[in-house]
Amino acid sequence: MSTNDLQSLVDDLAGRLRRSVAIDDPSIRLLAASRHFGDEDSLRITSILNRSVPDDVTRPLFALGIGTWVKPGRAHLDVPGSKKRLCVPVRCKSLLLGFLWLIDNEENPLTESDVEMAEDTAARAGMILYARLLLRERSNLRREAILRNLVTSAEDARRQAVADVLAEQLLVEHASYYQVIAVQREIAHPVETSDDIAVEVAVQEGLHTLPDGAGLMVADRSRAWLLLALTEALTKQQLGSITQRMTSRFHQLSGNDSRFVVGVSDTVSALDQVYRAYRQAVIAVRAALLVPSLGNVAKWGRLGPYDTLLRLPNDEIASAAGSSPLQRLEAADRQQVLETTLRAFFDNACDIRRTANLLCIHRATLYQRLKRIEQLTDCNLDSGDDRLTLHLGLKMKALAAANTASTTSWPL
Questions:
Q1: Which residues form the CdaR GGDEF-like domain (predicted)?
Q2: Angle, vertex CA 131, rays to CA 52 and CA 147, nearest 5
């Protein structure tokens, strides 16, 4: 059977079962469908006509956890005119590549043999879709190579990449706003399905919100970045829609065991400036990953001190943290009471009353702790420079610890 013969697989199973069969991609967009056998419902008809189903259908489907299923299961939606379905995940080499659907009528219920045939077809479909994935990845190598050169530190390579983008018409003409969105997953508790294409599918979902030619992407299993080429700058609402759709699709496919963070650059006005936007997006996604208080979507220019601190390489951050006056404080503060006090003091703009209230201590106790901190660090908290030194030291220490815990770094 040809590696492109997904339709034949669907027709063959439908003929043997005398049932309607459909296969969708991981975003529940139709890839192949058989003819009807009198068991069709309004949802199937909508899917065939539109090649997809509305979000108010996909959301409850993913809420059932189908993105993490490895075995067939029943899916019944509270949608008018919708019948109960058997959902068979289409996988190959642990990757979720789609879903096979059979309508399961009470008048003509699926037998165990029917389910086994569906599983066998799903397995063969998985091999076909995996082969397609490999072909697509190979065909994308040239495009990705150009994009990578577009953001490299080598000026000659960037200049050639700009010429290649224009010559091969990879992006929409007359674009005057370029923006980069970087995304990364962080797996809290690795599971069997963690090595999937959820990141790639999520970014593709973001691309679907844009006109053709308005975006290009580079993706691997744990991270990706998206270059937007626009004739008009995105509004805050449009940008929020893109990041929300990517995040939602990722979690629908991967569940909640992984954190998905997004970094957004400012816009630049020319292709030869995209490398700057890329660096901004990478710093923003690093900030979102390393500084949870920033949230899961971080935008360049709104990172506070981190848009400066995270320009430093990881080893420089670790070195700066290690040489801070805080090292003397840490040696004498095994319970981290003084460090916690100092952090609260800075977080509350050095306001004594607010800091004491936050820590639930008397002001006199706070004054005593601050005096002890001055003695141990040889810093004067009445000095702006000394305050800055200690505050930066705390930030560097937190970043160094977060970098140690992180398993993925971005090339700059």
A1: 166-287
A2: 80
Q: Which residues contact 154 (CB under 8 A, 6 or more apart)?
A: none
Question: Which parts of 139-232 are beta strand (E)?
Answer: 177-187, 215-219, 223-230
Q: Are 239 and 178 in contact (CB under 8 A)?
A: no
What does DSSP assign to residue 173?
T
Please name the amino acid found at residue 194: S
- The DSSP output letter for 27 is T
Residue type, 249: R
Q: Tell me whether residue 156 is in a domain.
A: no
Position 159 in a domain: no
d(CA 393, CA 411): 25
Q: Which residue has the tokens 């691309």?
A: 207
One-letter amino acid at 159 equals: R
DSSP state of 296: S
pLDDT, residue 212, reads 78
Q: What range does the domain containing 326 cover?
A: 314-405
| Per-residue model confidence as pLDDT tens digits over 221-247 | 789 999 999 999 999 999 999 999 999
Which pTM value belongs to this model? 0.68
State how far the Cα of 199 lies from the Cα of 271, in Å rounded to an integer: 25
Same domain, 335 and 291: no
Other Cβ atoms within 10 Å of 110 Cβ, number: 20
Cα 206 off chain centre by: 10
* Tokens 């977080």 -> residue: 347
Average of pLDDT values for 21-44?
90
Report the alpha-carbon distance of residue 285 to residue 299 in Å, rounded. Answer: 8
Token duo for residue 292: 């949870």
Domain match, 81 and 129 both = yes
